[in-house]
Automatic annotation (TrEMBL):
GO terms for molecular function: alanyl aminopeptidase activity; metallopeptidase activity; zinc ion binding. This is Aminopeptidase N. Residues 452-546 form the Peptidase M1 alanyl aminopeptidase Ig-like fold domain. It is an enzyme of class 3 (hydrolase). The keyword Hydrolase applies.
Length: 878
């Protein structure tokens, strides 16, 4: 497939200043009249106007009201006979499209009788011919016409300026958006929806109307999203001085959506998964996700919409920055320092379990990619989460206030513009001229240019004669596709020293900024060999190779004043045990030693640590994280080791789990705050462990209690955890509970997704999961075309259940192959994400490797194949 290259960027040959769109909405044939004011870009050589279009039927093209000649060249409409001078001209294009046939869910589509749009990245071209690129910004006015009974609500960006009835039971609404925007931020919604409205007054005294539109049955699930939106608006004003710039801010939820949500100007469109939350149907994780995704999309109003991307290679300009902002928001909302740390740990876990493998695999790309075949494949954890870490490092290098100053300058310089990642870094550096960021700016930009996870090797030397401790740090970065050699990165390493009793050495906290391959740092006044706590708070997205002894890790686990590194010390201990057991010969046997178990017990019983922290500290390193440490991966062996560790924890800490369960019960009503959610997480973990122990002992008490809790639960978190404890333990009560769960929630789409996912992600026992997943494909509630449902069953099986997916007979890969091809025929974006489940096939041991290779080759050879899937599988095979 043709590659689009960043170095080929060229400004557009024409500008489009205004767009006036009229839609006659009809699911089978929607008419779109597009009137644009266009002018030549005088800075570019004179050339024909080439407009992008896809799946459109063209009826008419007029220039200044008169017919004109045109030709279709591939997917482009080419106009050659344009007015001679440089005066703006009116271009009118009339097309039709078929929203009900739009299964890709890009452009204008219909879901459950309602029209929605999705234009990022290149969906607007499926609505009308246009210069579909983010650096072309225009003001939009939109008239929507539709049958009034079927589509009583007609929404688009901006302000409603006119509405009324038309003949034949139709009606219309006219919307005008005062803000210039790129076409990827265009949106319309038409359907039978209801809304929760909330008038607000901002800190600066301006009045606004917030609205969340959903189906009538879902209205009682919108309160949390509205509170989250109000909190996000207040936070952005307080933290960054960024106000809401719209009279009306609307959110609409749909159950058919390729991604999580979309930040269309003033009219965000969301996957229902990230809007709807009611204690009876949503878990604590769902509540937290709603809060952060609502905030994320709202924050885009400045970082993405007011200042947008010049081209799609700059995607992390808006996504990395906005993820960083939503992470900071969620931390502030969490409240206490330890609740903040819990959020940080969760974010780092995502980075390590998803982004590190991406950065080490065939799809590795810089935060600012250099090339792509299909931009939709680059909405990745690298662009989003690693991009956020890069922004976080900037904050670390200039300080919190310096960062706020930098963003202020960024908006002063670039409001209303389409810019690049360089512009962001430049503004932050210019606002902080004495910072290490300003001094090292060209090297810092390597974070945007070089793929791969850097490694930092540590050694330390104590000199009793000089009472100094010298830390040596050596950085390197492995080759990635197309980048055999890497230059050194700027790596901020937050450091502190502890003595062996766990006391922080006064004055030892500092920020070390690496920018060369080797760095030596001398700490004065150190009487005896200390324990270095490094990369505190995970100050850079790197792999630290720090040969601390087990005893030193145990000291940090018990005493580090940085909660992140305290957690990390425990994870390193567990990782060591896991790797030793994976590498050992013969059957897996009790990987955890007494000291580690005792240390984990001490964490669990700790009188002051938060429940949420305890739950994270007792969670085993993820399967993918363990796999990343190995040159050759036997997924079944890793699974066996993790199961053995889990069983040990269940038995050795049995009394402690009973205590944890009983001591963390909540009385009173459900509240989704971090402290209460932490207690529920820990009781849920305790139930898992108690059911696991009961499986081996045959004692029915805890499974019975768990089943009772499942039935009596007053919120979804408790109910789901009890169900999942029974399913994980493989207890006979699990089937009964699953049936009850389905019966009770069969009309709740998002709960059904959980029901499918729980079964697809359950521990494999003798290869039983694949047949179950295959049977569930035939279930009347399974709908392959609904992305959430497809992801919950097929995505969970292929991406999140390694032991069930990596089967020695290759049947998991054959299943993957068939589903990728089946989905690709109607929704390439969803198929391409599924295709990534075999990214790391080259690391697999035999027989998995050959089987995976064969499945990949079948997909790659299939005709037809979307550009999306082709790019993923051909990179995997390269
Ligand atoms: N900016 C949004 C990206 C998005 C998207 C991209 C491709 C196809 C469908 C999509 N839906 C939403 C999401 C965000 O990061 O806020
Ligand atoms: Zn985003």
């Amino acid at each position: 497939a043709r590659l689009i290259r960043r170095e080929d960027y060229c400004p557009p040959a024409y500008w489009i200043d205004t767009v006036d769109l009229t839609f006659d909405l009809d699911p089978a044939k929607t008419r779109v009249l597009n009137r644009m004011r266009v002018r030549r870009n005088p800075d570019q050589p004179r050339q024909p106007l080439r407009l992008d279009g896809e799946d459109l039927t063209l009826a008419r093209v007029l220039v200044n009201g008169a017919g004109t000649s045109f030709r279709i060249d591939g997917a482009q409409l080419v106009l050659e006979n344009l007015p001679e001078g440089d005066e703006p001209f009116e271009l009118e294009i009339f097309t039709t499209c078929a929203p009900e046939k739009n299964t890709q869910l890009m452009g204008l589509y219909v879901s459950q009788g309602t029209f929605y749009t999705q234009c990022e990245a290149e969906g607007f071209r499926r609505i009308t011919y246009f210069l579909d690129r983010p650096d072309v910004m225009a003001t939009y006015s939109v008239t929507l016409r539709a049958d009034k009974a079927r589509y009583p609500v007609l929404l688009s960006n901006g302000n409603l300026v006119e509405a009324g009835d038309l003949e034949g039971g139709r009606h219309y609404a006219r919307w005008v958006d005062p803000h210039r925007k790129p076409c990827y931020l265009f949106a319309l919604v038409a359907g039978n929806l209801v809304c929760r409205s909330q008038p607000i007054r901002s800190r600066s005294g301006t009045d606004h109307l917030l609205q969340i539109y959903v189906r009538a049955a879902d209205l009682d699930k919108t309160e949390h999203a509205m509170h989250s939106l109000m909190a996000a608006i207040a936070w952005d004003e307080t933290r960054f001085g960024l106000p809401l710039d719209l009279e009306r801010f609307m959110i609409v939820a749909t159950s058919d959506f390729n991604m999580g949500a979309m930040e269309n100007k003033g009219l965000n469109i969301f996957n229902t998964k990230y809007i709807l939350a009611h204690p009876a149907t949503a878990t604590d994780t769902d509540f937290a996700n709603v809060e952060s995704v609502v905030a994320h999309e709202y924050f885009h109003n400045w970082t993405g919409n007011r200042v947008t991307c010049r081209d799609w290679f700059q995607l992390s300009l808006k996504e990395g920055l906005t993820v960083f902002r939503d992470q900071e928001f969620s931390m502030d909302m969490a409240g206490s320092p330890s609740a903040r740390a819990v959020k940080r740990i969760e974010d780092v876990r995502v980075l390590r379990t998803a982004q590190f493998p991406e950065d080490a695999g065939p799809m590795a790309h810089p935060v600012r990619p250099d090339q792509y075949a299909e931009i939709n494949n680059f909405y990745t954890v690298t662009v989003y989460e690693k991009g956020a870490e890069v922004v976080r490092m900037m904050q670390t290098l200039v300080g919190r206030e310096g960062f706020t100053r930098g963003l202020k300058l960024y908006f002063e310089r670039h409001d209303g513009q389409a810019v690049t990642c360089d512009d962001l870094v430049q503004a932050i550096a210019d606002a902080n001229p004495d910072s290490p960021l300003a001094r090292l700016q060209p090297q810092f930009m390597r974070w945007y240019a070089q793929a791969g996870t850097p490694r930092v090797q540590i050694s330390g030397q104590h000199d009793p004669a000089t009472r100094t401790y010298t830390l040596s740090l050596h950085q390197s970065c492995p080759p990635t596709p197309g980048q055999p050699h890497k230059e050194p990165f700027v790596i901020p390493v937050a450091a502190a020293l502890f003595d062996h009793e766990g006391r922080l050495l006064p004055g030892s906290e500092r920020l070390i900024v690496l920018h060369e391959p080797h760095t030596e740092v001398v700490f004065p006044d150190v009487d005896s060999p200390p324990i270095a706590s490094l990369l505190r708070g995970f100050s850079a997205p790197v792999i630290l190779e720090h040969p601390l002894s087990d005893d030193e890790l145990l000291v940090l686990l018990a005493h580090d004043t940085d909660p992140f590194n305290r957690w990390e010390a425990g994870q390193q201990l567990l990782l060591r045990r896991a790797l030793a057991a994976v590498r050992a010969e013969g059957p897996v046997h009790a990987p955890l030693d007494a000291a580690t178990l005792q240390a984990l017990r001490a964490v669990l019983r700790h009188p002051t640590l938060d429940a949420a922290f305890k739950e994270l500290a007792l969670t085993l390193p993820a399967h993918t994280y363990i796999a990343e440490q190995l040159d050759e991966v036997d997924p079944q062996r890793i699974h066996a080791v993790r199961e053995a560790m889990r069983t040990q924890l269940a038995h050795a800490l049995h009394e402690d789990w009973i205590w944890a369960y009983e001591a963390h019960q909540d009385s009173g009503g459900y509240r989704p705050d971090a402290a209460a959610a932490g207690r529920r997480a820990l009781t849920g973990m305790a139930l898992h462990m108690l059911c696991l122990a009961a499986r081996d002992s045959g004692n029915p008490v805890w499974p019975g209690k768990t089943y009772q809790r499942f039935k009596d639960a007053t919120n979804m978190t408790d109910r789901y955890q009890a169900l999942s404890a029974l399913v994980s333990a493989g207890h006979e009560l699990a089937e009964r509970a699953l049936a009850l769960f389905h019966e009770r929630f069969r009309h709740e789409e998002l709960v059904l997704d959980k029901w499918f996912a729980l079964q697809a992600g359950a521990p494999d026992r003798g290869g039983d999961i694949l047949p179950r997943v295959q049977a569930l494909l035939q279930h009347p509630d399974f709908h392959l075309r609904n992305p959430n449902r497809a992801r919950s069953l097929i995505g969970t099986y292929c991406h999140a259940n390694p032991a069930a997916f990596h089967r020695a007979d290759g049947a998991g890969y054959a299943f993957w192959r068939d589903r990728v091809l089946e989905i690709d025929a109607f929704n390439p974006q969803v198929a391409a994400r599924l295709a990534r489940a075999l990214d790391r096939w080259k690391k697999l041991a035999e027989p998995y490797r050959s089987q995976a290779h064969a499945a990949l080759r079948v997909v790659a050879a299939h005709e037809p194949l979307s550009t999306d899937v082709r790019e993923v599988v051909s990179r995997a095979l390269a």
